[in-house]
């Protein structure tokens, strides 16, 4: 449920990083920075992560019956390396468990990523494995 934010809400969010929506969720990275996102539906197709009213990352998700597919997880370069992506991934894993999802698939293909090995190793650290039905995904069993 969206509401029109007043200019005061916008200023509070923009300059003080206080989110104007009561249902906004927060994530804190390694350096203590707080980032916000809102779920407008129970199984969102897209989640935008923000700080001070600026987009800091985006996750695109495709939901199947008992599979959550991470189609895209991007963190703005300025915010990389401080654990924001890791915190988001841990949140996605937890949320998938709440939604009774059996597997999480992540699309990682060498032709789409400049730093394929780094991204692949990042997913593997969180319990994903390389076997998938068509070889285009890495999978985490929940």
Short account of what is shown:
With 142 residues, the chain is of the alpha+beta class. 25% of the residues lie in helices and 30% in strands.
Q: Helicity level, as a percent range?
A: 10-25%
The main β sheet shows up as: 5 strands, mixed
Structural class based on helices, strands and sheet pairing: alpha+beta
Number of helices: 3
Low-confidence stretches: none
Summarize the helix and strand pattern as letters.
Answer: HEEEEEHEHE
Percent strand: 25-35%
- CATH class wording: Alpha Beta
Q: Specify the CATH homologous superfamily.
A: Gcn5-related N-acetyltransferase (GNAT)
Radius of gyration using CA atoms only: 16 Å
Mean pLDDT: 84
Give your account of this protein's structure:
The protein is an alpha+beta fold and about 140 residues long. It has a single domain, classed as Aminopeptidase. It is about 25% helix and about 30% strand. Strands 3-4-5-6-7 form a five-stranded mixed sheet, covered by helices on one side. The chain has a two-stranded antiparallel sheet with strand order 1-2. It is globular and about 50 Å long. The two termini are about 30 Å apart. The model has no long low-confidence stretch (mean pLDDT about 85).
Summarize the SSE layout with pairings:
Layout: H1 7-16, E1 25-28, E2 34-37, E3 46-51, E4 54-63, E5 67-75, H2 84-98, E6 103-107, H3 116-125, E7 137-141
Parallel strand pairs: 5-6
Antiparallel strand pairs: 1-2, 3-4, 4-5, 6-7
Labels describing this entry:
Aminopeptidase; alpha+beta; 5-stranded mixed β-sheet; two-stranded antiparallel ribbon; 30% strand; 142 residues; single chain; 3 helices; globular
């Amino acid at each position: 449920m969206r509401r029109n934010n007043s200019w005061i809400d916008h200023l509070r969010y923009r300059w003080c990083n206080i989110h104007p929506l009561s249902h906004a969720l927060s994530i804190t990275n390694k350096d203590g920075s707080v980032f916000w996102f809102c779920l407008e539906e129970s199984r969102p197709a897209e989640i935008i992560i923000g700080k001070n009213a600026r987009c800091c990352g985006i996750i695109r998700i495709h939901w199947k019956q008992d599979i959550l597919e991470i189609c895209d997880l991007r963190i703005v370069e300025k915010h990389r390396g401080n654990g924001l992506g890791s915190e988001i991934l841990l949140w996605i894993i937890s949320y998938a468990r709440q939604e009774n999802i059996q597997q999480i698939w992540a699309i990682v293909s060498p032709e789409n990523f400049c730093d394929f090995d780094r991204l692949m190793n990042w997913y593997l650290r969180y319990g994903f494995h390389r076997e998938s039905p068509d070889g285009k995904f890495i999978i985490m069993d929940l």
